[in-house]
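Hey L., structure's done. Input below.
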Amino acid sequence: MPNKMALLVVDMQNAFLQDRVEASRISQACEYINHVARLFRERGHAVVHVQDIEGMEADQEETYAFVPEVEVEPDDVRIRKVHSNAFWETDLEAVLRERGAGLVVVAGFAAEYCVLFTYQGAIERGFKAAMLQNGILSEHRDTVQAAYRDRHVVAYPVLEWLAEHSGTRA
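Output:
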């Protein structure tokens, strides 16, 4: 039985957040995302950054880059996608299974689109899934609240405990 976890950081990119979400909300979400990412790395759990490249032209690398507030480490997994569900036509499922992930924690942008569809994709593939409390964003605050109301949510103190008691130290 898999006892590892994976943090999926979805579409935290300049192209999607710039001029759509207030900087203070981005900073707050990134604080939670970065805290959990550091914790997962320290305990040998996967951190996966999902980058939406649909419509990206060759000269738009910077536009589609991850926002600077998100800490991306060299050993983090990077998945590029062209669909809203990060599992669809990518190797994300294989990567998570190879790493023994049983619980997938989804964070990022946008609560009503790619975050939600990736969350559902994880469940459809047999993973346990939860959204990171205070770690998802949308242009609309009420959408974030609806996502938390209608889906499984996990707070970082619970993840701290789980990380300590599942998996191994890196």
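The longest strand covers residues 128-137. The radius of gyration is 15 Å.

-- N.
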